[in-house]
Amino acid sequence: MTLPSGAPVRGAVDMTARGQGTIDNPDGSATFHLRNVQVRQDSYGNFALDASLADQQARLRAIADKFNVTASADLSTQAPYAGKAEIAIDDLDLASLPMKSDAGVSGTLRART
Questions:
Q1: How far apart are CA 83 and CA 48, in angstroms?
Q2: Beta bridge partners of 32
Q3: Which of 5, 31, 60, 110 could connect to 73 by a Cys-Cys bridge, CB 3.0–4.6 Å?
């Protein structure tokens, strides 16, 4: 694959999806996993997104393993659509970020919301 900028993108994609239920009470799940993602010569590791819908609840889980980032969300599919979301960054090595800086970047980042 090639980005609009012309940068080549490499990696493997695994996708699955299933669904059933009714319009009023759908039930389903989907997974989207990218493995060994590389843009130009930069390696981005693996990314995963898992989603499910059941019992009027939507659940999302995402992981970017190289950057030690996880995210999750649980949402009601019924008004007023209450939900919660969490993002965690656990010891992200700032030097692993695909950016160029004359000043140099070093250290680690840990954050939770």
A1: 21
A2: 15, 49
A3: 60
Spatial CB neighbours of 11, under 8 Å, sequence gap ≥ 6: 34, 35, 36, 37, 38
What does pTM read for this prediction?
0.78
Token representation of residue 13: 């994609």
Q: Which of 55, 59, 74, 64 minimizes the C-alpha distance to 29?
A: 59
Contacts by residues 6-15 (CB-CB < 8 Å, ≥ 24 positions apart): 7/39, 7/40, 8/39, 8/40, 9/37, 9/38, 9/39, 10/36, 10/37, 10/38, 11/35, 11/36, 11/37, 11/38, 12/36
DSSP, collapsed to helix, strand or coil, labels residue 42 as strand
| Tokens representing residue 71 in the block | 């995210």
d(CA 100, CA 35): 24
